Amino acid sequence: MKMFHIKAWAEYVVEWAAKEPYGFLTTVIWALTTLFPSWKLVKMIEAREEEQNKQKQENIAKAK
């Protein structure tokens, strides 16, 4: 099994960015745009869970 060499990968990325800046930027923007909806969904779920926990705590306090 080969080790993943970060330095070699970084050099490849820098070389690619220097040779094809538009292709590199397009790929980076495409990758980020595919991740944005996932990040947004995670934030929405976290906010919903937080609201539910807050409501549970309020109900517990009312019951006491």
Automatic annotation (TrEMBL):
Q: Which UniProt keywords apply?
A: Coiled coil, Membrane, Transmembrane, Transmembrane helix
The main place the protein resides is: membrane
What are the record's GO terms for cellular component?
Answer: membrane
State the superkingdom: Eukaryota
> InterPro entries from the xrefs?
Smim15
Q: Where in the cell is it found?
A: Membrane
Q: How does it sit in the membrane?
A: Single-pass membrane protein
Q: Which family does it belong to?
A: Belongs to the SMIM15 family.
Identify this protein by name. Small integral membrane protein 15
Which organism does this sequence originate in? Dipodomys ordii (Ord's kangaroo rat)
> Its encoding gene is what?
LOC106001674
